[in-house]
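Entry for zinc ion complex. Fields follow.
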Amino acid sequence: MIVFAVETSCDETSVCIINKNKEILSHIVFTQENHEKYGGVIPELASRAHLQILQKISKQAISESKINLSQIDVFCATCGPGLVGGLLVGSIFTKSLALGLKKPFVPINHLEGHILSPTFNNSLKFPHVCFLLTGGHTQIYLVNELNNFELLGETLDDAIGEAFDKVAKLLKLPYPGGPEIENNAKKGLIKSHDLPHPLESKKNLNFSFSGIKTAVNLIVKKNPNYDNKFIQNLSATFQHKVVEILQSKIVIINKYLKENKISISDITLVGGVAANKYIYSELSNTAKKFGYLVKLPEKQMLSDNAAMIGWACIQKSKKNIKSDYNFKVNPRLTVYN
Ligand code: KG4
Ligand code: ZN
């Protein structure tokens, strides 16, 4: 089975041709740079940019894969959640190809793409726990099976990646802020400022990041003539606070699993923020104390990409391909009922 996959839910335009033997025949991720000067993604600009580039990179992906369009068995695209304009561009484009070639079209949930991405390069046991850490979502799932996800907790306000981006913006660092904060943090001290640990007393699996962002804002305002050292220290302190919050969730997860007699061995970190090496190594150490292994997707499947969408399609289509030309894109699509 050869799958043609498209991802356009935010500011990455991506096309992948992948087969069920885990061979990525071609994979193109075009990151739109027209949002940088605004410090965040502008939806209207994103959908126009998808429209301009999608056909070109699709042709390029076909050419790099060394197969003909007619050899593709299944077409799939992200149909939610995400920015509605981008979802419409990607899904209508892909559906049109499928209809023209009389092939099935499978709508894919972006979150499912992220959650299943580590099954491509790891042997994962079910159930396992997944931390979905992106620019739009921060959720913890108990992944019971390939198609059975139980939401254990989520952010009540900002997403974790959004918090990285907003803190970076306050420090006048470029967008996306996550890698900038990570780099600056390498040279900073982790306890140089006082930052809150929101919801600490609640002992549940929900998150809140807006209070930390406000605290960072106040610190920046009190230090108008800040230098590089200040940026490095505040980056390190912020990133470490995020780590402490995530570590506290592992403790709560362990208690929850014990109380419910659920046994797991793996915790996965997925989404753009999982690219952060400090977060990965600190969480791995904490998880080890409870006997869990932290596992990551392949690098190319961390930030938004079509390979994880194609792989999710292959996983979903193992038993039978569920073609659906009538599926409507849904900016607020979830993976649970
Ligand atoms: O998964 P993703 O590409 O897109 C969404 O589905 O939202 O995640 C993008 C987010 C951005 O907020 C970006 O700042 C963050 O991932 N990110 C990072 C790092 N690399 C990307 N955050 C922290 N550390 C990083 N190294
Ligand atoms: Zn994503």
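NOTE: The chain has a mean pLDDT of 96.
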